[in-house]
């Protein structure tokens, strides 16, 4: 079996594991921001022009995959594949942190190729948020090396990432890393590296152009998935400052990262000549590419392409409303009786409001098309969030009930 040591031919010592620079921790900046406008949304008026969408998240059992595979002996020469996929509902939160890790892995590989006087050539597969952040960070790190991005579509609205809410929180995967101290530290490292990139964008005044804004996140439930993240400020409230929410709760000061602004901003940094439209149908097609370093950001597509049985699609429903009140806060953490908690959240973004509440395992062939069975789910989601802001959060009902 060919190993990296063998690839370097002749016993050159392997490079050490990359040192992880300590992320400079900062908090969301509220100075100079517009008022939060802490009033309930005018739901009944907004629903008239609501848009309903469905997305399928690339959930990976056991956590996302971020590792180097290779060297691989192919008809096109020796290659390495850096896998970066399976982030589930936390892709936007983790994208820059994982991209920073990808850059460090690629730096090792570039050094190896240069020792052998082989010119490195980089390909990124996937134009969701994971692929685009990986590509742009690689372009920043390797100014003289070509970085080509392959995607089956450059219509960003068709990507899973574009349909995300955009809250800075490692939702849906936090529990998979909260099993022991080592895994908690690992996830914390990735999140802090993402936060460091956001902090840099704040300091340079570029955050808004990437769709990043400070947000107050209110919740009735202390277990909101933020506790590990030292860059997120937590505030206890005896009474929440939203007049219709019941009793006390918690506030987390975090970020909105709006994918409808972020993705076009990132894609614009990839020159047209470096964008290729191509749908890969097998691993062999990927290995046949004329690149010796390949970054696999194919999301759920990796299940078939790389036979990853740990990937499980999770289908989610979202309702998008206009935001004429210019609300600037989040609500998350669910509602309902203690013995029957229901997912329910509302994110007020720059120009719209996102309502969500579903998290369901799906079959591999599940479509994003809205079927008849989806319509009562949307109705129940909307009814639940209305109850939350009417001070009736204990009356929320499961989405599979009609009563």
UniProtKB/TrEMBL annotation:
<dbReference type="InterPro" id="IPR006311">
    <property type="entry name" value="TAT_signal"/>
</dbReference>
<dbReference type="GO" id="GO:0019478">
    <property type="term" value="P:D-amino acid catabolic process"/>
</dbReference>
<comment type="similarity">
    <text>Belongs to the DAMOX/DASOX family.</text>
</comment>
<keyword id="KW-0274">FAD</keyword>
<dbReference type="InterPro" id="IPR023209">
    <property type="entry name" value="DAO"/>
</dbReference>
<dbReference type="GO" id="GO:0005737">
    <property type="term" value="C:cytoplasm"/>
</dbReference>
<protein>
    <submittedName>
        <fullName>FAD dependent oxidoreductase</fullName>
    </submittedName>
</protein>
<keyword id="KW-0732">Signal</keyword>
<feature type="signal peptide">
    <location>
        <begin position="1"/>
        <end position="23"/>
    </location>
</feature>
<dbReference type="GO" id="GO:0003884">
    <property type="term" value="F:D-amino-acid oxidase activity"/>
</dbReference>
<feature type="domain" description="FAD dependent oxidoreductase">
    <location>
        <begin position="122"/>
        <end position="388"/>
    </location>
</feature>
<dbReference type="GO" id="GO:0071949">
    <property type="term" value="F:FAD binding"/>
</dbReference>
<dbReference type="Pfam" id="PF01266">
    <property type="entry name" value="DAO"/>
</dbReference>
<keyword id="KW-0560">Oxidoreductase</keyword>
<dbReference type="InterPro" id="IPR006181">
    <property type="entry name" value="D-amino_acid_oxidase_CS"/>
</dbReference>
<dbReference type="InterPro" id="IPR036188">
    <property type="entry name" value="FAD/NAD-bd_sf"/>
</dbReference>
<dbReference type="InterPro" id="IPR006076">
    <property type="entry name" value="FAD-dep_OxRdtase"/>
</dbReference>
<keyword id="KW-0285">Flavoprotein</keyword>
